[in-house]
Write a structure and sequence with these properties.
Radius of gyration: 19 Å
Largest sheet: 7 strands, parallel
CATH superfamily of the domain at 4-172 and 211-238 and 292-309: NAD(P)-binding Rossmann-like Domain
Order of helices and strands: EHEHEHEHEHEEHHEEHEEHHHHH
Number of strands: 11
Shape: globular
Number of helices: 13
CATH architecture of the domain at 4-172 and 211-238 and 292-309: 3-Layer(aba) Sandwich
Distance between the termini: 41 Å
Helix content: 40-55%
CATH class of the domain at 4-172 and 211-238 and 292-309: Alpha Beta
Length: 328
């Protein structure tokens, strides 16, 4: 018999791919979802995922969801979209994480906690051991509430709880959950709009594009091969990192279209109209200076046996999927 893994955020890009991979491996995937009758939840159910109605901001429903599971992959979060506030983000990103980690601790089961790179120091190439940004440069709601959740996880590790951390790059690629997989402004959405000639100018920042299947693979490998307290990265290949416009233009070339995407000039990023359009998370990231190389994930590759999918192959796979689903 395989193990049973609870996946939070299972209707999201990484979570849905994790569910698919678990089931292919002969394991069981369980998902806690707020809208059990939504199209994405139905898509998961069609894969064989055990759907449990609930919300990670409600401790009672989290405890119900973890009954009988062997491990947790915690992907759920409120994204850093335009209009996000700390009040709205704190519940799902911080309190929800505390609930999930508490429930896992009660059962003494391992958890993989999915992070974001926006609260780590970026003066040097990002690695699995990069420190927190002690200058606290990213104070947008998403970065702040995800940072608090990470600090909670670290404190629990220090007390002996089995938590492994996974840091994903800019995930894109096929997913059974079309609604969340194509939300605007996801990286899938940007690729599709670029190919259709509909994408406006983008932030002038380098992005580590990574196939969502890679992120899910690293989450599962962290459970199977990882160790308490270690941090792992799914960032794709270092040579494939590029600005959003550059990667979208590579997708346009792969799709055989002539459309190309421009970038917002850095000297325009404090314009209130730009901030309102793109959100504080993206404009803050656009203003930062970045090291070269952008990251180094060799520890994850050695420790877990992770072989990043080349960007050109991932884009071709994504374009085929988008055409099949009539997205482009």
């Amino acid at each position: 018999m395989g193990k049973t893994v609870l996946v939070t955020g299972a209707t999201g890009l990484i979570g849905s791919c994790a569910c698919e991979q678990l089931i292919r491996k002969g394991d069981k995937a369980r998902a806690i979802v707020r809208k059990a009758d939504a199209p994405d939840a139905k898509a998961l159910r069609a894969l064989g995922v055990d759907i449990v109605p609930g919300d990670i901001t409600d401790m009672k429903s989290v405890r119900e969801a973890v009954k009988g599971v062997d491990a947790v992959i915690h992907c759920a979060a409120l994204r850093g979209l335009p209009g996000a506030t700390v009040d709205k983000s704190f519940g799902p990103n911080t309190l929800g994480t505390i609930h999930v980690l508490t429930a896992a601790h009660e059962l003494r089961i391992p958890t993989v906690q999915v992070l974001t790179s926006t609260f780590f120091a970026n003066d040097k190439a990002l690695t699995e051991s990069s420190p927190l940004d002690l200058l606290f440069r990213n104070t947008d709601p998403y970065s702040l509430t995800k940072r608090l959740a990470y600090v909670e996880g670290l404190a629990r590790v220090a007390e002996g709880q089995d938590i492994r951390f996974m840091l994903p790059g800019a995930g894109y690629g096929p997913t059974p959950c079309l609604e969340n997989g194509m939300f605007s402004p996801s990286f899938n959405d940007r690729i599709a709009k670029a190919i259709r000639g509909e994408l406006p100018p983008q932030m002038p920042m380098p992005v580590p594009y990574v196939l969502a299947d890679d992120c899910a693979w690293v989450c599962i490998a962290a459970l199977e091969k990882g160790a308490r307290g270690e941090r792992y990265m799914a960032f794709g290949r270092v040579e494939d990192a590029g600005t959003i416009a550059a990667v979208c233009n590579q997708a346009c070339a792969a799709a055989g279209v002539s459309h190309r995407v421009e970038e917002v000039p850095k000297n325009k990023l404090d314009d209130p109209a730009i901030v309102e359009k793109y959100g504080t998370t993206m404009t803050t990231l656009g203003k930062r200076d970045y090291p070269s190389p952008l990251f180094d994930s060799q520890f994850t590759q050695r420790r877990l046996g992770y072989a990043p999918t080349p960007l050109d192959r991932g884009l071709r796979t994504t374009i085929e999927w988008m055409r099949k689903r009539k997205i482009i």
